[in-house]
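G., the chain you wanted modeled:
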Amino acid sequence: MSDGFNLGRAELVRLQGPDARSFAHAQFCSDVAGLPANDWQWSAWLDAKGRVRYFFALIDAGEGNLAAWLPLGNAKAFSLELRRFQFRAKLIIDSVDGFGVLGQFDVAKDSLRWQRHGAALQLFLEGSTQR
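Predicted structure as tokens:
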């Protein structure tokens, strides 16, 4: 296992509120309704022609809330564009400033684990080979 690496461009968007999961299920291309508690899945937000606008790891943050971890950044633009489709849904969509991300490789497993440390998010990317 390595000491980790810094994913400097990565950013985070939070979707919080009673309608967060149903809103995300309607907007994103993955099965958000089937996302288990405290788990994650790759997802994307597509345009009307089916092209990927944003690619991210969608994380169940507990209590019906979600977090979208964007490895290439652009959280502010993503959250602003997503809010245009919010209409009457009861949720707050915001980008998170100043959080730290650290990933660690473990070749024995094939999953992504995450831990919250106050405002920091720690991602463990397992199943990848160290480069």
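The beta strands are 5-6, 11-16, 40-46, 52-62, 65-70, 92-96, 102-103, 112-117, 120-125.

Shout if anything looks off.
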